[in-house]
Amino acid sequence: VSRAFRARLASHLGARTDALLRHPRFRLHLFTSRGVHPLLRREGRLRTLAGYVGAYAANLRSRARMGGWLERVVFSDARDALPFALDDYPGRTCALGPHNSFEALVASCSIPFWLQAVHDIPGAPPGAYWDGGITDYHLHLDYASALRGRGERVPGRAWAGSPGGERRREEASSRSSEEGFPSSEAESPSPEEERRRSEGASLGTSADVRAEGPRLVLYPHFQPSVVPGWLDKSLHARHGASARLDNVVLLVPDADWIARLPNAKLPDRRDFKAYGADHAGRAAVWRRAIAESERLADEFAARVEGGRPIEAEALGEG
């Protein structure tokens, strides 16, 4: 399965990764989960199972304790760091480039027990890397830190072994002492970069957050809660909104709309088991859901372009 997945991914994206890393407007950031406990540093049938049992038990106590088993590793476009803090959970950032983009992409999709982990990604600490959804299921990140930090970018710690990591660390330390700002491990943008971002930066990219006024994050989602980690799915007390989402606008489909979909639900991977060998039946259901989604997107676009009011409500606190 892993070999077939790699081949399919390479055929679709292999030749385009360099173009993604050169995009003039958008920046690519890939989230992965790296095993740091001895049981999870290398993949093995029994040790991986035991390792995830340990991670699950640790997560029951707190997400921070799970950090002793799995850490967040974000592979970020070397031109720009994410514009908000990543210190809510143990982890680090590594530079994303042609030398590691494909391996990092595969790792970001490697669901434990379904796909093999990716080991020893170039430019990153050694170890086994899995799907970033394990540590960051719905990306319940500290978006509001962009406001608290007065516009300064505050990424997680960079790994010095990544290309340019040590240089960025030294330059950031020098700037912080000279300018009186908190240390940041990403390079300051050039005047040309500042101008370009102010003219065309988009929410959802790592655009600089120094513009006047509050910055909102538009988050299209499939449900009205942002679950922090994959192992938190059954821990409903962690599903509520937090102060980290204070500047987030969550865009979700209405429950009545979902009820009108085939089987009254969004398509998911459980459909493969439910439909079995009936590939045509499953495909027909998925295509209908896609068509309904396109109509929903068209309706939203018409409301925005026409200046029509959009109903909003506060995120639940769980």
Automatic annotation (TrEMBL):
- Point to the regions of Basic and acidic residues compositional bias: 165-178
Q: From the UniProt entry, list the residue stretches annotated as the region Disordered.
A: 154-207
- Here the segments flagged for biased composition (Low complexity) are 179-189
Please state what the protein is called.
Answer: Phospholipase
